[in-house]
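// run 5 | inverse folding | seed 20
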């Protein structure tokens, strides 16, 4: 008979972001108390690193629903064949121009071009390079708190338009799949500072890949302001850098973090992870 998960060990990974969880097997059912404890840990630490898992794509899909409901990926090109609800991250795909595509390079928050962007993203390591390929996270609560009062006041009421691919972005995204190509011409407006619906804390909400404009502000003022916020938010003191271990499941909160992947390993070494996102709410 399956043994329900009843407790786990938790250790903070930095003063502000990330906690490691040991002693649970995500293939086993989770009772209500455990669900509450895991969600509490997720809210407190923003990144959970659940060690020593060996999940199939179907098991990963099932396990992550402890934290919420599946958010359908905008681009359906990267579906795992045996479980299309799960997508993959791989360094083996190429962009239309033949260049190697490292998904997630450059700090961003996921799918902010959606009216209700995913609250969380989760990855499960299937194959890792011997070294490198870390995922970096920056804590946008901490970044917000450390802003000068004058800047807080300035950005407090501002809103930005988010699109699939910002014309200002250096990072180019792969073409959308045919059935989702309408997403490429849609846009949404979100505040530059959002309040986390569970913690009530304020976080800077920016995304250099997706922000097309700040509403009511010309580019001559908006682009330097966004650059300044990026430079501020990506300081080392706000960062947790995740070094992947075989079997890791990592889930993070897109509402109070930015993250980025690193393509700093030999391209001949495969880096392959399962990926999914969980439904969120309209940023406010
Ligand atoms: C992502 O941005 O979702 C990918 C992160 C990674 O591959 O480390």
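// decoded
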């Amino acid at each position: 008979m399956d043994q329900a998960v009843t407790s786990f060990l938790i250790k903070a990974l930095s003063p502000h972001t990330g906690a490691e969880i040991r002693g649970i097997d995500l293939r086993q059912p989770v009772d209500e108390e455990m669900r509450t404890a895991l969600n509490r840990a997720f809210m407190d630490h923003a990144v959970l690193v659940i060690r020593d898992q060996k999940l199939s794509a179907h098991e990963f899909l099932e396990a992550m629903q402890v934290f919420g409901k599946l958010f359908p990926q905008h681009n359906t090109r990267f579906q795992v064949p045996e479980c299309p609800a799960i997508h993959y991250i791989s360094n083996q795909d190429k962009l239309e121009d033949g260049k190697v595509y490292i998904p997630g390079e450059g700090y961003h928050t996921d799918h902010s071009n959606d009216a209700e962007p995913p609250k969380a993203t989760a990855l499960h390591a299937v194959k890792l390079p011997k070294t490198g390929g870390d995922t970096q996270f920056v804590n946008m609560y901490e970044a917000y708190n450390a802003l000068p009062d004058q800047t807080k006041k300035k950005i407090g009421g501002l809103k930005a338009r988010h699109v699939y691919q910002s014309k200002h972005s250096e990072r180019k995204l792969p073409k959308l799949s045919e059935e989702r190509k309408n997403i490429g011409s849609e846009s949404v407006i979100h505040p530059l500072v959002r309040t986390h619906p569970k913690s009530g804390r304020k976080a800077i909400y920016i995304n250099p890949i997706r922000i097309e404009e700040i509403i009511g502000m010309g580019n001559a003022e908006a682009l330097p302001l966004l650059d300044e916020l990026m430079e501020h938010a990506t300081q080392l003191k706000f960062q947790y850098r995740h070094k992947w271990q075989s079997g890791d499941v990592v889930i993070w909160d897109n509402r109070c973090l930015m993250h980025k992947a690193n393509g700093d390993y030999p391209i001949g070494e495969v880096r392959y992870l399962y990926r999914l996102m969980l439904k969120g709410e309209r940023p406010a």
